[in-house]
Batch of 2 targets.
Target 1
Amino acid sequence: MNESKKWKSRLLSSSLPLEYEVAKILTDRDFSVSFDYSYYRKDGDQKKEFSTDLKGLHFFPLDTEDRIDASLTLVAECKYREEGKKWIFLPDINKREFSDFTLGYTIKSLAEFSTAKTKKDLIYSFEEGFEFALKGVEINLTSGEVFDKDIRHGIAQLKFALPYLIKNIIEDNTYCHLVDAHPGYLISVLVTNADLYILNEGFSIERVKECEDFEELARLVPYLVCHTEIGPDFTDHHKGIFRGFSRNSEEIENLQAFEAFQKSQRHKTYQVYSSPLRCCHDLEQSYLSTMKQYYSQHFICNFKHFPEFIDTILKTLSEATKPDQKKTRIKKK
């Protein structure tokens, strides 16, 4: 490469131009965007500051100035890859009854910390349309290199940021005026310009040896959901953030109001409901089932398809939180 052109390649590889374009897509859709969302994480024996590339905040609806029906917080990592690099993922090979994939775990809903009815089935239907992947690697078709470092790093950055954002959303609703509390949603997404592939059924060592072309092994997808395990390092990280979180929760007026409302919406047959008091307790205890609910599934999206991905999420959540027209409107602060 000509020496005078190297700066272009290096600037692109920094992912700064990709971050800018992703941010523009979000701001064009009325997100408020900030860069380098920072948080603390243990590195060895010390706490160090880490960050994710972007954080965006969107309020529903946008056709009126006198209310907020819901909000969506988005945290994103951006990975620009040179031409010839592909991301390939293992599909979920488990039988349905043994699959770790759970509908409603990729869009993280904290709607129980409000007195608003939501249509969770619309979120489940949206997530059902995604390919579910268990693991991914990057293949450089030019050099022949194969590794998973950048994919694993991107997902880890997102996962370790999420507890802080969940805590913020809950506390915002817990300590505001009750009429201002609204359903909060949260998503994590890894955005890349690399093409995304899911391995075909029947993939095997022999298929790899026999194939003439990479695309004989996998099919191209615009986006997917990737599963990640909850390890001891993340568990310790989570416990530190939520230490003492449920202390005196039964004395907090808003939490009592949320609990009473959610109880009134309990399932008519099974008498179950989403309890905000129990959620606070479970987050503090860092139960594995609770951490799987919020931190085990993440979106991965090809940049070309990011606009349609965001548009579909916004449409889904807008419909899921659209209030009863007879309900009193909640005024903005």
Target 2
Amino acid sequence: MRLAFIINSRIRLLQDFEVQFRTCDHELIRKSTRFYTQYPKHAIELSEQAGAYDILVAVGGDGTLNEVVNGVMNLETRPAVGQLPYGSANDFARERKLTNKLDAFLKMVDSGRARRVDVGQIKFPEESRLFHFINIADVGFGADVVNRLSKNDGWYSWFNSNIKFSIAIICAFFSYSHQYVTVKADNNSWEGKILSVIAANSRSFGSGLIIAPEAKISSGKFQLVILGDISLTDYFINLKRIKRGEKIKHSEVFYSEASVVKITGGSNLKVEADGELAGQLPAEIRCLPEALNFYCPDL
């Protein structure tokens, strides 16, 4: 079995990983290879190039994992994927109870803890490319927040994840306007103004916001959450409930399940997935059941 690490060179605790790697005497580590990113989206390319390995391990946060997943999904024969979470939010890893301890990951490998998990696929009709995600895709307010974070990466980087998200949310609060969209989810449809439309493969995004408490990563369907014409004030009032993993009780908030979600309408409404900007509407979001082998202690 051959193991490769796809490492985000910008992680703050890179030295911690390097020390663990150098002091580990496991046979898999002695035979493994490390690849370091040099620029944005490089982890996608590195994952494609490392397709001959049996396991690819993303060393970084949600964004690094997203790039590795996208690279692997572009391969005909897909290696298994794992993660050592070294990011700022680590939403997917938190839900999976993953740690950045190398020994713990190797124990999962030794005990064969790879699990078949679903992967989300986003298709933009006006583009040929496909964008994949493993956690959550979001249209509307959340994507606006991600867009602000990406544009202000320089000075935002001085703060921890919770403060960064809070600043971006406050900035978006004063400028975001609800837009009218049409959502077709399997055999159902919905129309109206939205704060956000969320296709959740896992439960949590935005640094610990459990927006989709019933999402399961191996169910073959997303939990679809539509935050309709709900005010940002009402959204903030419900933040404590969201963080506790409770559903929002509001006449403009709707929960359902769907394997295919098509969203049209709006004006330049952006789509984000796993904290990365993916594109803008119109978009088709499809759940690919059990598309990937992923190492985790529990689903």
